[in-house]
Fold:
Amino acid sequence: MEAKGSLKGNAGYFMKVNIGAHELAFDEPIEVQGTDLAPKPTETLLAALVACTNMTVQMYARLKDWPLDEVEVSISGEQEAGTGKLLLTRNIKLTGKLDEAQRERLLAIANRCPVHKILNQQNDIVTQLV
Structure:
């Protein structure tokens, strides 16, 4: 996987990032000289976890042919001052005629979504000038 983007000049921070055939927009709030035309990069991190959680839970329920009508996920996050560590709170609402064992299994599956796994471990980032 690869993402590419560039930001030119001194006029705000609005930019587009290409990921394969797709394009995402990013910005910063007005208070930090952005134009607030798109979400901040950290907000899209939360969005990625929301999407991944929804998809993972729904895929598992479909595989098991369980009566899951809808998955609704909301995530809030706060960065710890000084360390930058992120505390995320994820709320999952499952709608459908699921028994308690199915609900508990889907909760466990939510914790196995790929984005959750990436965020929940130490990662290495190699940065180089090209």
Remarks:
- The mean pLDDT is 93.
- The first helix runs from residue 41 to 64.
- The chain has two domains: 1-38, 41-119.
- The first strand starts at residue 4 and ends at 5.
